[in-house]
Amino acid sequence: MDPIELITSPYLRQNLPKIKQGDTVRVLQRIQEGDKERTSPFEGIVIARKHGRGIQATITVRRIVEGIGVERIFPIHSPNIIEIRVLRHGRVRRAKLYYIREKAARDVRKKMRSFAASVLKEEDRVVQGNAAREEASIS
């Protein structure tokens, strides 16, 4: 056995679920602020898994918060990670899902354009309604 594996093997987690790219996961992380400790959940899609299966293995999780993409990199075997739960398995055909970054941004921009267009249409209706009322009051 490799000497590095001998040293790191006691620190490896044994209760990890099978995590793949495209899976939707919820990661519970322990955060210590001063003398207080709290748990912070982070839920999103796994877009990358790096550094193999050893002690340095990480996953990159992405989610959209209020229209802004947020990515966090979690070391899988960190003692600060309380739990990693797979909520839904995704079927993807790539090892790294970095293309989701642009796709998500495009979708957000498209939504914003359609929202802006609907707001403009609504404003036009209000202006036309006000103009019709003014004409009726003048006549």
> What structural class should be given to the helix and strand makeup?
alpha+beta
- Tally the helices: 2
> Secondary-structure element order, as H and E?
HEEEEEH
CATH architecture of the largest domain: Roll
| Share in β-strands | 35-45%
Under CATH, the topology of the largest domain can be stated as SH3 type barrels
Largest sheet: 5 strands, antiparallel
Let me know the average pLDDT: 85
Low-confidence stretches: none
Helix content: 25-40%
Separation, N- and C-terminal Cα atoms: 96 Å
Number of strands: 5
The tally of structural domains comes to: 2
Can you characterise this structure?
By secondary structure, the chain is α+β, with helices and mostly antiparallel strands. It has 2 domains: 97 residues, SH3 type barrels (Roll); 42 residues. The chain is 33% helix and 35% strand. It has a 5-stranded antiparallel beta sheet, covered by helices on one side.
Question: How are the SSEs ordered, and which strands pair?
Answer:
Elements: H1 3-8, E1 24-33, E2 36-50, E3 58-65, E4 68-75, E5 81-88, H2 99-138
Antiparallel strand pairs: 1-2, 1-5, 2-3, 3-4
Index terms:
alpha+beta, SH3 type barrels, 2 domains, 33% helix, elongated
Task: Kindly summarize this structure in a few lines.
With 139 residues, the chain is of the alpha+beta class.
